[in-house]
Amino acid sequence: MRRFIILDRDGTLIVEKNYLSDLAEVELAPGAAEALQQFRDLGFGVTVITNQSGVGRGYFDLDAVDRVHERIRELLGGSAQIIEGFYVCPHAPTEHCACRKPKTGLIDRASRELGFDATRSYVIGDKAADVELAHNAGAKGILVTTGYGAQALEAGAVQPDYVASGLTGAAAWIATQS
Ligand SMILES: [Mg+2]
User: Fold this and answer.
1) Confidence tier at 178 by pLDDT (50, 70, 90)
2) Are 109 and 87 in contact (CB under 8 A)?
3) Does 66 qualify as catalytic in the annotation?
4) C-alpha of residue 14 to centroid of ligand 1, in Å
C-alpha cells in the first residue's frame, strides 16, 4: 500500500485569498514546488483535498474551481505532475454533506481511487478541520502556520502532531519519521 501526503489547498499549497476564483490571485505558497519534490523523493504520493464552500454559497461554480487547479499546475511547472488529483467538497456547511473536512468522505474516496493507506499518511493544512480530518482517518496531522494556521494555534482548539512554518518544514519533519 502506498503512503500519501494529503495537502490542503488554500493557506497551505497556495496563499490564502478569501473565496478564491480569480486566476490572477493564485499564488503558490513559499517552497511549494520544492516540498512536492521532497515528498516524492521520500516515496509519498501527493493529492489535494479542499473545501470549496464558495460553490455551495453560489459565489463561483466548479468550472472556476477547476480553472484555479489548472493555474496551480501551470505555476508549479514540472512539480505539478506529483499531484495525483484535486478532491473538492463544493458544499456549504449547511448542506451537511459527508465530504466537507473534517469529515472523511474525500480522503476515503482518494485512498480507494489512488490506492493508499490513510493510517500511514499525513494531512497538512492550516485549519483545525485539516488536523481533525487526519485524526478522523487515522493519519498524522501537521498544522502549517501559513494561512489561518497561526490563528488556529492561538485559538488553542487544535492538536496537531507537528507544527511547521510551511510546507518545506513539514517535509523536513516527515523525513525524520519512520
Ligand atoms: Mg486551508
Assistant:
1) confident
2) yes
3) no
4) 9
